[in-house]
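User: My collaborator sent over this chain with a note saying "see what the structure looks like." That's all I know about it. Can you take a look?
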Amino acid sequence: MELIKKNIHMNKLKCKSALQLTLDDDFNVPDIKPDIDRIITQQGDVIINEIKAMNGKLLIKGELGFNVLYFSEEDARPIHNISGAIPFDEMINMELTCVDDDPIVKWELEDLSTGLINSRKLSVKSILSLSVAIEELYDEETGVMVEGPEDVQYISKKIEITDISVDKKDTFRIKDEIILPTNKGNVLSVLFDAIRLNSMEVRLLEDKFTIKGDMPVFILYSSESEENPIEYYETEISFGGTVDCNGCNENMVEDITFRILNKNIEIKPDMDGEERVIDLEVILEMIIKVYDIQEPEILCDVYSPCKEITPIIRDATYENLVIKNNSKHRIADRIRVPDNQPKILQICHSDGLIKIDDIIPNGTELQVEGIIDMNILYISEDDLRPLSSLKGAIPFTQIIEVKGMNPDSSYEIRPSIDQLSVMMLDSDEIEVKAVMNLNTIVFDKVTEPIITDLEVADLDLEKLQAMPGIVGYIVKKDDSLWNIAKKYYTSVNNIMEINDLENDNIREGDKLIIMKKVDMAI
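Assistant: Without extra context I'll predict from the sequence alone. Here is the result:
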């Protein structure tokens, strides 16, 4: 008698940790730059350089890169920038069982502020959140059938599992050239740029997947034009491509996230030798997970009329995919210019970052609360302050329907902005319209008893011989033919044949004749 086993690939969250750190440093204005009279705006990005396990902890090394746009009265070109970086290395405590696994590190720039110490020195302060998650991929070996004598009886059942077929990281490179239109001046230097991803779409194919999306690009630059020393240009680049991904197909469920890992902007001469070509290279980091929803049959119970068989049972715990969807929500609000800021003449650029404050589960719904943190760059009516920035927060509350969710379910919501438009209502007020995408994935924690082995022993013949050969049995509540046959050392087919049953459906109160099959083998 042999127990036939099968490996089922399973995935679960092994451990996670998070911390918040404050970065604070002062920077001198380089000698080649003029004095700072007023800071206009700032932007920051985080680069993780190294992740290393050390004595039950995780060492994360990286840097916060920043760019500060400022106004100076000393120069004919009034707008300038200062770029720099604040390095950091942080220890995150982890469970000892997790230190050797490959971690997924995510970061969020909670806050970035700059202040003027004096005209030649500024301070940069930031609050950075780091989160680490380690998922465990493992094989659960379970019995699926029994090979042996014909009298061995076994019953199987179908279970639904989420098999993780692909779990890896990859990169996707985007290269493009932007040629400035004729009404824009030649570029001396890039002062400020903003690049983000819009409308990302993924389609799984056999051993590969395709991606496509849009990439809005904004550039503020010093121009060679004396009439317009500061100019800006905004455009949108569409991109797409195919990524090799062994083990996936179109019937599976993808969970692929994209992040701009690195970007490089270079100004190159055009055919006439003028600095009008913007060479753009962007590297996307892809965290790729592909799930296969399977319904394998596993062994539920086994016995024999001729042998004493004891199944060895162990509980297996795993996660099943409940839902994976993208829900879009429209948001609109207005932002007013504070009294201490110059009035708006023209909007140059707008950017928004979604920050989720709370996720409240309620039955089969998730209530998501947060804000869209807006930063708007605009040309003002004040000639002494020609460029200014406006900040604002747009609150939102959205409901996501999640059928099949229960109180023990785990969930993750990844927000992004698909569309963002800002319209000037008058010199004091603007209207913001956004389409927000909430990428939601929900898993259920499932515990399933599985048979891992069988203990086989000879029957107690004295006990069997003491049992009657034929029994009249009245079906009780919750009885099944399987349990009755197992109790009386016979088979389901034998009971059905003797009682002329067409199927194994029985009801409370039914009367059955049961013949002990083991007598035939004694």
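A starting point for your reply to your collaborator: The first helix runs from residue 461 to 466.
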